[in-house]
Write a structure and sequence with these properties.
alpha+beta, Alpha-D-Glucose-1,6-Bisphosphate, Chain A, domain 4, seven-stranded antiparallel beta sheet, six-stranded antiparallel beta sheet, 5 helices, 13 strands, globular
Length: about 240
């Protein structure tokens, strides 16, 4: 990860830092402090937690009110040469049975996207804070079929290569354009230039289809709100 331990710590252990590449967060920056992750507008989407270990700039552990029987997220930061760090995430606390297996699989895929976004944040927007917009909808089709439907509807290639510039097109499709940073059969990660400088990933995970963006600049909040509203409406219109 580009940056000193102190710079990387700001990105993984503070509310504005985490909000720039994951989901909106508030963090009381101390041992035992409260931490809240917002995955959407409803009260059921506000996940309350706590800072169980606070050892800046090398180790922080997030979890529920108690770590007994629950999920925990341990971040470890170690300095390397050339102004870089190694960042490790240990996600623990999984149980037995199919529901836990499914949650493990979902988190494994999700963390790949978010950790890549963290790297993009530190590489291209160091010293800045992004504003997240997280539109998503549930579609009647899933996986690669949902991805094919999404890509076709918004004018993106079904398979895009790293370094390729892509842009949405079509009647009623909100603007989104940038350079491909990563791609998989059901995801596309972009370094954005439209609607603002930032990052985005488009994903079809199960029946959930998302077009999440993290925007920077003086008018980032306004543009993020427009992205949220425009894409949320469009995704909902395609869900029937």
């Amino acid at each position: 990860m580009p940056g000193t331990p102190e710079e990387v710590w700001e990105a993984i252990a503070t509310g504005p830092g985490i909000s720039s590449w994951y989901v909106p967060h508030t963090v009381e920056e101390r041992q035992g402090g409260a931490a809240t992750a917002s995955f959407g507008p409803g009260p059921e989407m506000q996940i309350e937690g706590r800072v169980h270990v606070w050892d800046p700039p090398h180790r922080i552990v997030f979890g529920g009110e108690s770590l007994e029987g629950g999920l925990a997220f341990e971040w470890l930061v170690e300095a390397r040469d050339g102004g870089t760090c190694v960042v490790r995430l240990v996600n623990s606390g999984f149980g037995d049975g199919q529901p836990w297996d499914d949650q493990y699989d979902d988190m494994t895929g999700g963390w790949r996207l978010f950790l890549r976004n963290l790297w993009l944040h530190r590489t291209h927007f160091a010293g800045q804070h992004g504003v997240a917009a997280l539109p998503m909808a549930m579609w009647p089709v899933a996986g690669e079929e949902a991805w094919s439907r999404l890509a076709s509807a918004i004018g993106l290639p079904l398979r895009a290569g790293a370094g390729e510039r892509v842009a949405t097109s079509g009647d009623g499709v909100p603007p989104l354009a940038g350079t491909v940073a990563d791609a998989s059969p059901t995801t596309l990660t972009l370094l954005l230039d439209e609607p603002a400088p930032g990052t985005a990933f488009l994903a079809a995970e199960g029946h959930g289809v998302s077009v999440w963006a993290y925007l920077y600049g003086d008018d980032a909040a306004e543009r993020a709100d427009a992205h949220q509203q425009g894409w949320q409406a469009w995704l909902a219109s395609m869900a029937g």
